[in-house]
Amino acid sequence: MRRLSAAERARIRYTYEECKATADWLLKQTDLCPLVGIVCGSGMGGLADMLKDRVVFNYKDIPNFPQSTVHGHAGRLVFGTLKGRACVCMQGRFHLYEGYSIQKITLPMRIFKLLGVQTVMLTNAAGGLNQDYKVGDIMVLKDHLNFPGLAGNNPLVGPNDERFGVRFPCMSDAYDRELQQLAAEVGQELGFGDFLREGVYSVLGGPSFETIAECRMLSILGADAVGMSTVHEVVVARHCGMRVFALSLITNRAVMDYDSAERANHEEVLETGKLRAEQLERLITAMVTRLEHNNNYV
Ligand SMILES: O=P(O)(O)O[C@H]1O[C@H](CO)[C@@H](O)[C@H]1O
Ligand SMILES: Nc1nc2[nH]cnc2c(=O)[nH]1
């Protein structure tokens, strides 16, 4: 096991050359050149098990990688194939509330890019703000509200390396519309129409869940779901030119009413992840398979 020094732990960002060294280290140990990168949300780590011909790296062994500290995030990078297509899957992501810098939690997106990934598929567990949503619904993200970003905590803050992307990237096209359409088509074909939604995800810093007033505010501002991840990854993935698809599994209903006896908790989040694991796997697999059949998608 690689032990990180205190200085390494305190690092805020990594240079292009350091990211390249990590990507090259990984590529040296696998013949797979992934075009698709998948990130598993809380309790959705089982998605990585759908890959065949797997080569697995523990985060602790990967140069420059942070460690997963959250229950439900195993901390493994899994290379493998999905219906013949080479993929790389993060079985566990990093969150701001774990104490890492925002640049560090998004480092894997730059590694994805340098591995050759063209399409990123992000998943997360989220609280449902939209009153029509039920626990177990799958919401395809069409947009986001980036609260840490609005407050100045954006992963692109700091010197910009043009080899990754431009200083001022556009975010009005962050979520690829063709991929949203593909998810809708595939979802209908799989008979998921009753629980497949499309909406706006809002990200907060966490780790405390929201107050009732905060949930009401988010809903008034147009958010359909709330979580503590994904958006930072989306910003970095788009900055370096990868196509992005993201979905939220609605694991709990955000508490909006002072009379409610409901209380958000991480155990419920993980449980709902298990209940929808099979459908999530089928949706992602079918989408990746369709990417394979249509070169326009990658
Ligand atoms: O967004 P993911 O990683 O799925 O995790 C979600 O679930 C955790 C809360 O239960 C938070 O980390 C929230 O962001
Ligand atoms: N912030 C936040 N994150 C979540 N992740 C899963 N459920 C929730 C929630 O209700 N709020």
From TrEMBL:
Assigned EC number: 2.4.2.1
Ranges of residues in domain Nucleoside phosphorylase: 36-288
Binding-site residues for phosphate, renumbered to this chain: 42, 73, 93-95, 125, 229
UniProt keyword annotation of Plastid present: no
Binding site for a purine D-ribonucleoside: 210, 252
Known pathway: Purine metabolism; purine nucleoside salvage
Catalytic reactions on record: 2'-deoxyinosine + phosphate = 2-deoxy-alpha-D-ribose 1-phosphate + hypoxanthine; 2'-deoxyguanosine + phosphate = 2-deoxy-alpha-D-ribose 1-phosphate + guanine; guanosine + phosphate = alpha-D-ribose 1-phosphate + guanine; inosine + phosphate = alpha-D-ribose 1-phosphate + hypoxanthine
Any one GO cellular component localisation term in the record: cytoplasm
Gene Ontology biological process terms, A to Z: purine ribonucleoside salvage
Enzyme class of the recorded protein, top EC level: transferase
UniProt GO MF annotations: purine-nucleoside phosphorylase activity
Keyword terms of this UniProt record: Glycosyltransferase, Purine salvage, Transferase
Family that this chain belongs to: Belongs to the PNP/MTAP phosphorylase family.
Record's function text: The purine nucleoside phosphorylases catalyze the phosphorolytic breakdown of the N-glycosidic bond in the beta-(deoxy)ribonucleoside molecules, with the formation of the corresponding free purine bases and pentose-1-phosphate.
Record protein name field: Purine nucleoside phosphorylase
Native source organism of the sequence: Muraenolepis orangiensis (Patagonian moray cod)
Organism lineage: Eukaryota, Metazoa, Chordata, Craniata, Vertebrata
